[in-house]
Amino acid sequence: MDPSGVFPTSYRSDRRLIRTRWQFLALVVFMALLLLAPYLVSSRIIAILNMMMISAVIAVGLQICTGYAGQINLGQAAFMGVGAYTASILASKTGLTFLLTIPLAGLSAALFGFLFGLTAARIKGFYLALTTIAAQFLFHFAVLNLPSTWLGGSNGITVPPAELFGQRFVSESSQFYLNFAVTAIMVAGAFGIVRSRFGRAFVAVRDDDVAAGIMGINVAATKANAFLIGAFYAGVGGALWAYLIRFVGVDQFTLFHSIFFVAMIIVGGMGSIVGALIGVFIIRIIQEIIATVGPNIADSVSFLGGDIVFAGMNVVLGGVIALFMILEPKGLMHRWNILKSSYRIWPFPY
Length: 350
Prior knowledge:
Blueprint: H1 11-15, H2 21-40, H3 43-68, H4 76-94, H5 98-117, H6 126-145, H7 148-151, E1 157-158, E2 162-164, E3 167-169, H8 172-194, H9 197-207, H10 209-214, H11 219-245, E4 247-248, H12 255-268, H13 273-300, H14 308-327, H15 331-345
């Protein structure tokens, strides 16, 4: 990169995630503050951070599938549920350690997602969205109609706490470090994927699948792999969710939750891993505000009823999605990149 910091001078430097010492220092400080968070903030904040990290894993997977590969996916919550049920069954019935149950949960969800990814080779757009919605209904149908001794039926499954070398991850603080370690690995892996030849193939198929096929890219395999990777991330997030809540029920993985994950990548910015993380932070903060303020509003205005929290959350999040699609369709990361470019070339207009 030249001294002005504007124009990259080599492909190798362009691929580097951390390009300056200031960026490296900022990352180190940020990671250190996260590691010290259990000692600096209340348990309530730690619980929120746990939820954010699990959502970040799932949203990053959705970002790879939808933001980078361009494959509409409205079944991410179903893939998350597959991972959660796999981890809970393996942990409760076989006693496997979480070092095995979490990867196996990701693999089971990846297999389930790959089956729906195969349909993406022939359909796209609205019809692909309907196909992924079918994953939600198929997941719910299977859980509720298979023998209750298998998946617990409507009663759900109780999950034993994660344990390593006799140390049980029961408290919010101990679970925080487990979620932090897994999230860091998954996010780092996502940056590696999008900078590899697979990531470039995803972008090529997203921009023009016909041209990508002419260039020699296996379009069908690329689309299926996008669903496979996205579902794997959802499965890992589902396993973390199972260990955090220590109970898995079918009502925890609905179409509304899939829409929440889509909202996260829309708000943060499509086609950006960092954008997915920013979207998770903003959407989760909005959800926490509504969950905190909603009951007070319901108590003060009695005719609204107790459903004001759930209804208000859906209305507000739907409004946020609509506003971003109208005013900032490329998300907050796009606006941030524009600001950075304007700062670097100032005082020149372009």
